[in-house]
Amino acid sequence: ADEHTPRDKDLSSDLVAALPRRQDPIAELLLYQGCWLPKYWVPGVIEFQRRFNPRPDDVVLASYPKCGTTWLMALAFAAAARRAYPPAATGEHPLRRLHPHDIVSFVVEVFARGEEAKLDALPSPRLMSTHLPFTLLPPRVTAGGGCKVVYVCRDPKDMVVSLWHFLRRSCKLPSKPEDLSFDELFDAVCDGTSALGPAWDHVLSYWRAAVARPDRVLFLRYEDLQRDTGESVRRLAEFMGRPFSAAEEAAGAVAAVVELCSFGNMKALEVNKNKAGSVASGNLVIPRDAFFRKGVAGDWANHMTPEMAARMDGIFREELLGTGFSF
Ligand code: A3P
């Protein structure tokens, strides 16, 4: 690992001071390596890029916010740890007493808090999560040896609806969070200036990586997870090097993972309800139940006009034209 000296810190702050910036309704964003990052994330990103040492069997769960991160965390954990923790219909399971975000950490936040020793202590295979685009992951992750990455994408119209509801419940705005304008958020996504945006570059970075290295990067869609969760769980388990055996299939192990992680089940668990406390992240204080809202595809139709939908679809279609990927 690189030696971490005070000089590194000085370099980081000079670098941060020189970045282009814009004020988003939620946070100040800095344009770092082509991505609009919330300012409070940048030091953690720099530390992660410099100092993370992947193990070959690590699995990084990646997503643009509100695209199915929490579901993916639950499914990946339940599938990876199924021998230690059988996901049977009843009985003890970590997902019945811990929020998925307490089981799988956001790796940038771990580095931002200087808590990377906690990552070293995790048993293999380690599961971690990130909202960074592929292009911002540490070279040690993306290079030949690297580790495994699973990405989940979602129709951007549903993403922006989900994000609006989430931020209205979570952010510490000077104004009342309930006043957060849907149109402003929608415009930022369309303009490519939303946090972690441009959103089309985000999805493309992982799409290209998955095409180039399918053994290293698995690309999933929220809508496919909805359509056939079991099939996605099989792909996930196989990708993580833990395919379901014929005996497990016969015993209903895939269905047990699907049921444990289902929206209805997760939302109903006491630990995922608000009274179990909030999750702090930068300038967000997130009620635990804010990660489980409606859990369907197509809710955008209840929030935007057909014209808005056509505008967003058109922008993404154009930005993704000729790439081989479309929503
Ligand atoms: P909605 O707001 O549309 O309901 P993320 O986990 O990336 O923050 O994404 C949150 C979105 O995923 C929310 O979408 C949430 O309801 C949905 N979600 C969370 N857990 C889910 C599950 N187990 N099954 C299906 N959707 C889930």
From TrEMBL:
Q: Where is the Sulfotransferase domain?
A: 56-323
Coiled-coil spans in chain? none
The family line of this record is: Belongs to the sulfotransferase 1 family.
- Its recorded name reads Sulfotransferase
Q: Which organism is it from?
A: Urochloa decumbens
Q: Which UniProt keywords apply?
A: Transferase
- List, alphabetically, the SUPFAM superfamilies matched: P-loop containing nucleoside triphosphate hydrolases
Enzyme Commission code(s) on record: 2.8.2.-
Which Pfam families has this protein been placed in? Sulfotransfer_1 (PF00685)
Tell me the InterPro entries matching this sequence.
P-loop_NTPase, Sulfotransferase_dom
Bias (Basic and acidic residues) ranges: 1-12
* A molecular function GO annotation: transferase activity
